[in-house]
Design a protein that fits this description.
The complex is a heterodimer of chains A (261) and B (254). Chain A is mainly alpha-helical. Chain A has one domain: MetI-like fold, CATH 1.10.3720.10. Chain A has eleven helices and no strands. The longest helix of chain A is centred in the last third of the chain and has 39 residues. By secondary structure, chain B is of the alpha/beta class. Chain B has a domain of 172 residues: Rossmann fold (3-Layer(aba) Sandwich). Chain B has ten helices and ten strands. Chain B has a six-stranded mixed sheet with strand order 6-7-8-3-9-10, with helices on both faces. In chain B, β7, α7 and β8 form a beta-alpha-beta unit. The termini of chain B are far apart. The chains are: A mainly alpha (261), B alpha/beta (254). At the A-B interface, α8 and α9 of A face α2, β6 and α4 of B. The complex binds adenosine-5'-triphosphate (ATP) and magnesium ion. Adenosine-5'-triphosphate binds next to α1 of chain B.
Chain lengths: 261, 254
C-alpha cells in the first residue's frame, strides 16, 4: 500500500466516525433518548438486581419443578433440531449443485430454505400462535421451521464442498444416484453436518426459552409466570439454571466436535 | 472384432469451440493404447465420452458392438460396470477406509438397497483383499485413504477399477501427480494388468517417453484432432513436434 492510499484510508475512517456521531446525535434527538440520564440509572439498576434477584432457600424448594420444565425445553429443542436436520438433509441434497436431481427441485429447495431462514424464530412463534394456539406444538414448530431454514443452507454448503471427484469416480463404476449420495457425499460432509446440528441445538435451547414465554410452555412459561408475579427470587433461580444448562450443552457439544472432526 | 470403435466423434461444451473434431479410431481387445497431446487437446474429454461421463454430441462410440451414445440409463450402468476408470487425483472418498473404497467398485452390480446398506458378499471381500495383496497395499486395508501416499492411493484406485472385472480400463493421467518412482510402479502395474489379465487399457499421458516405453500404440491428439495414430516405435521426433507444436520442444525432453 502506498502513501497516497494510506492517506485516503485515513480520511475515510475519519469521515466514517463523524458520520456515526451525527447519526447517533440525530437519533437521540428524535427519540428524546437522554444519554446522561440513562447512564445515571445504571447504578440504581444494578443495586436493584443485586438486592432482588437473589436465590433464597425458599425458592430452592421449587427447583425440581424448574428442572422438569428445563428438561422439557431442552428435549423439545433437541427433538426439533434433529427432525429439522432430517428434512434439511433431504432439501440440501435437492438444492446442492453437485447432487441436484433437476433444476426445479433445486430452486424450490433453496427457496424454502431462504424463506424459513429469513423470518426470525420469534416471528414464526407469533405467526404459528394464531393457528395452533398456546401449546407446546407451536413452540416446537417455530423452532423446527427456523432450524430447517438455517440447516438447509449450511448443509448445501457442506455438500457442495464434498469433493466432486469421488462422485465422478462412483458414477464411472456404474453406481446409482443413491449409492453415490450415501457412500461418497454423506461420508464426506457428515462431520460438518453434525457440527452444525450441535450448534443449532445450542442455539435452539436459548431460543426455546424465549419462544416458551410467547407460547406458554416449558421453562419460558415459568419465567414469565414468576416474573409477572414479581417473585424475583424464583426468576433468579430460573435464569441461573438456564445459564448452567446452556454452558453444559456447549461443553458437551465441544467435546463431541473434537471427537468427530 | 474391435472392442471399441470411435466414429466421427465431435464434442463441444459451448457452441463456439469444438473440443473434439471428427475423431476416428478403433481399439482391439487386449491393446495397451496411449493418448498423448498438449494440455487442452481434449484427452480427458475423449476418455469421458467412452463411458459417457460427458454426453456425446456428434458421431458414435461403439463398445462391444453397442452404441454408447444411444444407451438408456440401465444399459449405461451396465456399460460402466464393464469399464474401469483411473484418475489423476485418484478420486477416492478420503474419509473412508481403503477396503471400503475398493468395494465401491462393485456398486455397478448392486441394487440401490444393497449398495446403500453396504452389503457385500464374502467372495467380493476376498477378491478385494486379493487385489490389495496383489498391489502390495494389503497392510493398509483398514487405514483411511487420506493417510496414504499418492502412489498408494493410486493403487487403491486400480484395485477399485479391477474389482469391477472390466474389459476396458480408462486411465486419465494416472501418474501426473506422482514422483518418478511411484510413476514407474503404477505404469508397471497397468502394463501387467493388460498382459496378464488381458484387460484393454487406454492411458492418457503427458510424458511422451513413458508412452513410448509402455504403450504398444499411440494416438496423438492436437486441438481435438487426431494427428498421429500408429505403433509407438513409429513415433519420431518430427511427429512429436507436430503434436506438441514447435515452441514446446523443451516439454518433450523432460
Ligand atoms: N466441463 C467443461 N466445460 C466446459 N469446457 C470444458 C469442460 N471440460 C473441458 N473443457 C474444455 O475442453 C478443452 C479440452 O479439455 P480436456 O480436459 O479434455 O483437455 P486435456 O487434453 O485433458 O487437457 P489436460 O492435459 O490439461 O488434462 C479445454 O479447452 C477445456 O477448457
Ligand atoms: Mg485432462
Amino acid at each position: 500500500m502506498n502513501a497516497k492510499q494510506m492517506r485516503k484510508n485515513k480520511w475515510q475512517t475519519t469521515i466514517f466516525f463523524i458520520l456515526i456521531i451525527i447519526v447517533t446525535y440525530l437519533s437521540t434527538a428524535i427519540t428524546k433518548f437522554n444519554f446522561i440520564d440513562s447512564i445515571a440509572t445504571i447504578p440504581a439498576a444494578f443495586s436493584w438486581i443485586f438486592s432482588n434477584l437473589l436465590i433464597t432457600e425458599e425458592s430452592l424448594e421449587k427447583l425440581p419443578q424448574i428442572l422438569e420444565k428445563l428438561g422439557e425445553t431442552i428435549f423439545m429443542s433437541i427433538a426439533a433440531t434433529t427432525l429439522a436436520a432430517v428434512v434439511s438433509l433431504f432439501l440440501a441434497i435437492m438444492g446442492s449443485k453437485t447432487t441436484k436431481v433437476n433444476q426445479t427441485f433445486s430452486v424450490i429447495a433453496r427457496f424454502i430454505a431462504s424463506f424459513s431462514r429469513n423470518i426470525p424464530v420469534v416471528a414464526w412463534s407469533l405467526i404459528l400462535l394464531i393457528s395452533f394456539g398456546q401449546n407446546s406444538i407451536t413452540g416446537f414448530l417455530a423452532l423446527f421451521v427456523a432450524t430447517v431454514g438455517f440447516l438447509t443452507r449450511a448443509f448445501i454448503e457442506s455438500v457442495d464442498e464434498a469433493n466432486q471427484s469421488s462422485v465422478e469416480a462412483l458414477t464411472a463404476t456404474g453406481a446409482t444416484y443413491f449409492h453415490m449420495i450415501s457412500k461418497a457425499v454423506i461420508p464426506q460432509s457428515l462431520p460438518q453436518m453434525l457440527s452444525w446440528i450441535l450448534f443449532m441445538i445450542e442455539t435452539n435451547i436459548r431460543s426455546a426459552t424465549l419462544v416458551g414465554i410467547l407460547t406458554g410452555t416449558g421453562i419460558g412459561y415459568m419465567f414469565d409466570l414468576y416474573y409477572k408475579n414479581m417473585n424475583y427470587n424464583l426468576v433468579a433461580l430460573i435464569t441461573f439454571t438456564i445459564i448452567i444448562a446452556v454452558i453444559a450443552i456447549e461443553l458437551i457439544s465441544n467435546r463431541i466436535r473434537r471427537v468427530i472432526l | 472384432m474391435s472392442l471399441l470403435k470411435v466414429e466421427g466423434l465431435s464434442k463441444f461444451y459451448d457452441r463456439e469451440t469444438k473440443v473434439l473434431k471428427d475423431v476416428n479410431f478403433e481399439v482391439k481387445a487386449g491393446e495397451f493404447l496411449s493418448i498423448i497431446g498438449p494440455s487442452g487437446a481434449g484427452k480427458s474429454t475423449l476418455l469421458r465420452c467412452m463411458n459417457r461421463l460427458v454426453e456425446i454430441n456428434e458421431g458414435k462410440v461403439i463398445f462391444n458392438g453397442l452404441d454408447v451414445g444411444a444407451m438408456k440409463k440401465k444399459e449405461l450402468r451396465k456399460l460402466r460396470t464393464n469399464i474401469g476408470m483411473i484418475f489423476q487425483h485418484y478420486n477416492l472418498v478420503p474419509r473412508l477406509t481403503v477396503i471400503e473404497n475398493v468395494l465401491h467398485g462393485r456398486f455397478g452390480y448392486k441394487s440401490t438397497i444393497q449398495g446403500v446398506l453396504g452389503r457385500f458378499t464374502e467372495p467380493e471381500k476376498e477378491q478385494a483383499f486379493f487385489l490389495l495383496e496383489k498391489l502390495g497395499i494389503s497392510e493398509h486395508a483398514y487405514k483411511r485413504c487420506d493417510q496414504l501416499s499418492g502412489g498408494q492411493q493410486q493403487r487403491v484406485g486400480i484395485c477399485r477399477a479391477l474389482i469391477q472385472e472390466p474389459e476396458l480400463i480408462l486411465c486419465d493421467e494416472p501418474i501426473a501427480s506422482l514422483d518418478p518412482n511411484s510413476s514407474k510402479v503404477i505404469m508397471d502395474y497397468l502394463k501387467s494388468i493388460s498382459t496378464e489379465m488381458g484387460i484393454t487399457c487406454i492411458v492418457n499421458l503427458h510424458q511422451v517417453e513413458v508412452a513410448k516405453e509402455y504403450a504398444s500404440r499411440i494416438v496423438g491428439l492436437k486441438q481435438g484432432e487426431i494427428v498421429f495414430d500408429g505403433p509407438s516405435k513409429l513415433l519420431y521426433g518430427e511427429q512429436i513436434q507436430n503434436i506438441y507444436g514447435m515452441e514446446s520442444r523443451e516439454l518433450i525432453t523432460v
